[in-house]
Every structure is written in structure tokens, then in C-alpha cells.
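[job 4471] stage=fold_predict status=RUNNING
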Amino acid sequence: MTTASNSLTIGRIASTVGVAIDTIRYYEREGLLPEPRRRASGYREYDIGAVARLRFIRRAKDLGFTLDEIRELLALSSDRAEGVSGVRERAQSRLDAIDARIVELQRVRGGLADLIDACPGHGAPEECPILRALSDVRA
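[job 4471] inference complete, writing C-alpha cells
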């Protein structure tokens, strides 16, 4: 049983983890964070486990995982038989998606750099290669 000395308000947990109060409420609605107990006054009352779970969610988001993927990771974290292999598979999938995005961004960067190099930076707008490329209806 949680006593008043080791329970946290939503403001305190938000400050401790470094997230907004609305973010915590959102995670509750999305099922990423269990609904906390309520005090007689109606205020939410969290235990220290909520801090660890919120930090997990925040770190997973920083690594690019979606909320659905984080939900899966949380479920796998308690699966003693298949959890670690499932987590590894999802992390590999996330890494593959990041690598694909990097390749795409490098392609876009190259195209933009070429347009910038071709643009003299002065003259008539209709002669600007950047504006022509953006306005080209052949796409």
C-alpha cells in the first residue's frame, strides 16, 4: 500500500520526469500509463513505478519509436519467454526505418544542394532554378 510519503502528484511526477502534465494524461488515455489511484479529493496519486514507466516511454520516443511500438515494448518487457527477442526485433526494425530515412534525406539533400549551386542568387524569379523546380508541373 502506498503511503502519502511515497506517492506523487501529477505535477511532481511531471517535474521529475521532465514531461508536461498533459502528456501524462495523454499517456493514461492511450493506455501507456496505468490509470492512477485517486485521492478522496479526486487528485491523481502516482507511485514511483510511474516515474520509471514514464522515463521508459520518453527514452523510447527519443529513439524514434511510435506510441504503438512503445506499447508493444512495454508489453514485451514483462514477457519472460519471448520479451527480449521481441524487443530486439522491434529495435532492429526501428533501426532499419531510420537507415531508410537517412538514405532518403541524403537524396533530398543532394537535390537541394544541386539546386542551390545552380541558383545565382539574383535575377528574374522565372529564371531561378529553385523556383522552376518547385513550380514544374511535370512531377
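[job 4471] summary: The two ends are 64 Å apart (CA to CA).
[job 4471] exit 0
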